[in-house]
Amino acid sequence: MAETPRDLSTLTSWRSDWSGLRVAVLGLGVTGFSVADTLIELGAEVLVVAREASSEHQQLLEVIGATFVEADVAVPAALAGFDAELLVVSPGYPPAHPLLRWAREQDLEIWGDIELAWRLRDKVLRSDGTPAEWICITGTNGKTTTTQLTATMLVSGGLRAAPAGNIGVPVLDAIRDPQGFDVLVIELSSHQLHWTNRNAGGVLAPLASVCLNLADDHLEWHGSREAYRRAKAKVYENVAVACVYNLADDATRHMVEEATVQEGARAIGFGLGVPGPSDVGLVDGILVDRAFLEERRTSALELATMDDLVAGGMDSPHMTANVLAAAALARAAGVAPAQVREAIRGFRMDHHRTEVIAESDGILWVDDSKATNAHAADASLSGFTSVIWIAGGLLKGIDPHPLVTKHAKRLKAVVLIGADRSVLRDAFQRHAPGVTVTEVVGDDTEGVMPAAVRAAAAFAQRGDVVLLAPAAASMDQFTDYADRGNRFAAAVREHLDGRS
């Protein structure tokens, strides 16, 4: 006779009894391994199921005592016979995946890694005996930079803080770090948010949260625009201090209005105009706070100037908005204005985010490979006036027609790469027939960027910008967006060296 299933609602602490719990883990990337490693440390029995896995991760699973089985869509016998009490899913698996459909048919409870981490966040406590606060950040674009900025501001304010989540460091690794933190700044994808706040014992309650913006993305994963919006909106549920939203994006305001928050939590707007009370914004080139001061109806606090943003390449409109959002989150955690400014002055953005690769003969070569969707490409294109645009890849179900229509006048030529070239080609034929379109045909990873750079160089003249802002994911031809950007940069340098 099978044992009585564990009451999962009692598993709300590192100190709960997790021993012997039979857990199936779906996926064995960075997140999946962190889940398996954590559960093994807790004494659970772990079966990892994944369609693929690196040999390193498989070997590590064997070392820690977890079992691995390879499976794509069919339910493997090892999983069917495991009698799992819980399934923890990695973000890459959409809700409609056959293995998740099977799990629902078995009435198997499904968590994401974020819910598991929230339940276990008390492993390492602060000096007052409480776990680290969480600040949560989502949005279609700008998440990583804003997460890094917020963490930098918190550290500047004397707090032990670290970025985690979708930024690359699994939250489960962060909550197990023996040094402990005062605050974790957690970047959350819509995939991760989909699985949060679904169970009474695992309801997230962040100190502060933001959805930076909302535009169509990952619709093939979520199944609809509304499902994507609902996932993003979860970031505001149960917030304790501040729901930070984008004054220029009504969708984020509506999310805050609909959210159920803790008593005393406030809505804090950020935007590029003069801020009202309870907002942060700009006044004559000065970033100001009218939210976190007693006299906010009659005065404001200076946080930084636009000149402070220039050194770090953060003076574009979309980056300025990200800085203001980060500042609002840091202020919600008690960081002083002077410490916010100190952090801004010392901050430098990561590679592949509107990164200037070279300037030669008056032509600027710019890598914004991180622009993996139309919303990000829109922000990137808006910063230049005469562009040779390198675009394409996996469009993820997004309609590129509005993007092409909006920016047709600033485009001198377009070089299309990637699997979904035909969709982009059609958009240009319909909405920008006067723009010259060249295609790099084929899926040769080694050759695509040299070919794209040569094609772009044939059109570029003094005063032009050659911009890699693909508006698409990269996995059709490259390992990830960083690989795509690195190959672009290498091809640019090779091209320029060959002319010297």
Summarize the amount of helix as a percent range.
25-40%
Using the 3D structure, state the CATH architecture of the largest domain: 3-Layer(aba) Sandwich
Q: Name the structural class.
A: alpha/beta
How many β-strands, per DSSP? 20
In the CATH hierarchy, what is the superfamily of the largest domain?
Answer: Mur-like, catalytic domain
Query: How far is the first residue's CA from the last residue's CA?
Result: 78 Å
Cα shape? globular
Tally of individual domains: 3
The stretches of 5 or more residues where confidence is low (pLDDT under 50) are: none
Give me the number of helical elements. Answer: 19
Radius of gyration: 24 Å
Notes on the structure:
With 500 residues, this protein is of the alpha/beta class. The chain has 3 domains: 20-107, Rossmann fold, CATH 3.40.50; 117-346, Mur-like, catalytic domain (UDP-N-acetylmuramoyl-L-alanine:D-glutamate ligase); 355-499, Protein-Tyrosine Phosphatase, Chain A, CATH 3.90.190.20. Helix content is 35%, strand content 19%. The chain has 19 helices and 20 strands. It has helices at 30-41, 55-64, 77-80, 98-105, 113-119, 143-156, 171-175, 190-194, 219-222, 225-233, 250-258, 306-310, 317-332, 337-346, 374-381, 401-407, 421-431, 445-457, 481-499, and strands spanning 22-26, 45-50, 67-70, 86-89, 109-112, 133-138, 161-165, 183-187, 208-211, 242-246, 266-270, 279-283, 286-289, 301-305, 355-360, 363-367, 387-391, 411-416, 436-439, 465-468. A 9-stranded mixed beta sheet has the order 7-8-6-9-10-11-12-13-14, with helices on both faces. Strand 10, helix 11 and strand 11 form a beta-alpha-beta unit. Helix 6 packs across helix 13, helix 10 (225-233) crosses helix 11 (250-258) and helix 18 crosses helix 19. The longest helix has 19 residues, at 481-499. The radius of gyration is 24 Å and the shape is globular. The chain starts with 21 loop residues before the first strand and ends with a helix. The model has no long low-confidence stretch (mean pLDDT 92).
